[in-house]
Amino acid sequence: MSDVDVEPVSASPDQVPPQPQAPEPAAPWWRGVRLPYALTGVLLLVMTWFTIAQGRFHGRTYDEYMQDDYGARVLKFYLSGTEDRSFLDFPDYLYMPQHGAGFELIVAFFQHLTGEVWQTRTIVNGLFGVLGMLIIGLAARELAGRGVTGAWAGFAAALGLALYPRYTGQMMNNSKDIPLAVAMVLVLWLVLRLMRRWQEPDRRGEVLELGAIGAAIGFAASIRVNALLWFGLLALVAGGYWALHGWKLRGRELRSEITNQITALLAIGTTAYLVMSLLWPYLLTNPTDGLLASVESMAKYDWDNEIRFGGEMVRSTQLPWYYAPWWLVIGSPLPVVALTAAAVVAGAVALVRRTGVDGRLLLVGAYILVPLVLIIGAHSTLYNSLRQFLFVAPGLIVLGAVLLVRWIRQAFASGRTALAWSLLGLAVLGQVEVLYASARIYPYEYSYFNPLVGGYAEARHDYESTYYGSCTRAAAVWLGENYQRYTPDPAPTFRDEHQWNSLAEVDLPDNFVGIGDGQPYFRIVSGDPGPGYREIHAVVVEGEPVCRVAVVDYAPGG
Fold this sequence. Notes:
Shape: globular
Largest sheet: 5 strands, mixed
Mean pLDDT: 90
Strand content: 5-15%
Number of strands: 7
Low-confidence stretches: 1-16
Radius of gyration: 28 Å
C-alpha cells in the first residue's frame, strides 16, 4: 500500500500494475560484515602494538648476527653499483650466498634509513609478521566467499595465525621463516583469486594479476629457494583444469585456452625470476648455475648434528619419515589439529560419495601436503622443530578457519543451534588453552607444545624446546642490572657462550668488555658453568633453566 492516497480504479486483473515490494529490513550490524571486519582491524592494531612494545623482550637468536651481516653486505652491493661483492666472502660451510637475501635486504634498507640496527630489525621483522595476519585473512575470505561467511573466515584465520605461538613467538627475531610464511600465503591468496577469475569473460588487469603472482613467488624464493615448489602446485592446478574441463574444449576454445595458459606460465615465470634475481644478487653474479647450486645445497643442507626428538637423540640427517608431520601435530594449537583432521575426514566422505569439492580447497590441501611429501621423499636435513616448514601452518589455518565458519553457519541455518554453539565453544576453549600456555612460557611462546604431549612442561624433555639462543637477552639484562654486587671493576669482562658477544653487548651497559679467549669475569652459558665458576642467576621457563649467568668463584657476593 502506498503512502499516498489515490482514488480506486476498477481494472481487470491483467491491467493491475505490479506493486513494488517493500525492501527487506537491513540485517542488524552484528549479522553483517562490519563486525568481523572491525574485529580484524582491532586484532591487527593490537598485534602492531604488541610488536612495537614487546618485541625486544623476545631477544635475538644466534642466526641473527650472521643474517644481519649478510643483509648489510647485500645492501652494499647495490649501493656501490654492484662493485662491493663482500656478500660472497662468507665461509663455504655456511652457504650464506646460497641462502636467499630477499628479506635481509629489506631489513638492511630500513636500518640504513634509521641508522640503528637491532631495534629496527626487531620492528621490521615483527610488522612483517603482522602483515601476514592480514594476508591470511584475505586468503580465507577469498576461499570462503565475499559475504558474511568470508568476512568471518578472514577474521578466524587472522586470529588463528596471531594465536599460533610458533609463528608469533618468533616473528620478531626470525628473518627467514616468518617472511617466507608470509610470502607463501601471499602467493596462495593471489592464486586462489586467479582461480576464481580465470573463467570470467572480461578479466581486467590480467597481465598485472599474473605479474603479481610471479613477483610474489620470486620474493618468496629470494627468501628460501624451496618456494619454487609453487610452480609444481600451479602445474597441479593446470592439470586439474584439463582433467575436469579441458577435454571438453574443441577448436577455437581449445586453442584459446592453450594460449592463455602458456601466456600465464611465461608471465609468471619471467616475473618470478626477475624479482628473485633483483633481491638475491647471488643469482646475478652466478647467472648460469647459481639457482641450481642453491637448490642442491638447501635440499641437502650440510648440518649433521644430533637433535632431541621423541625422547631420543637422533641425527638431523637421519630423521624418521614422520618428523615434519608430527611436529605440526604437537606444535600446533589443538583447534588447528582437530580441524585439519576433520577436513581430511570430510574430504574422504566427499570422495566416497562422489560429491563435488571446490578445486580451490584442493589447492589449499596440496599446499599443505606437497611440501611434506617432498621433505619425506628427499630425506631433507631438518632441525629447530618446525621452523623450516613453518610456511605449511598458514595453509592449515586457512583450511580450518574456512571449514569451521562454514559448518557453524550451516548448523545455524539448518536449526542445529546446539551443534553450532558447540563448535564455536570448542574452538574458543582451544584458543584459551593456547593463550594460557603461551603466557606461562612468555616470551618464549615459540616453544609451545599442545596438550597431546603434555604441553611445554612435559614435552621439553623429549623434544627441542626453547628457540635457539633467544634467552640470552634476559640473562644479559639481569647481568647489567646486578653485576655491581659481584665486582667493583668499572670494566668487567664477559663472554656469551650461548650465542655471540656482539648480541649480548646490545643489552649490557657500555662498560662491559667482551672477550673471546681466556677467563672472563662473567659468563652466559646454557648448562653447568664448570670448574672455576658458580651460577648466580638462571633464566627459567616453567622450572627449566634455559640460560645461566656465572661468575668466577672468587667473586664477592652470593
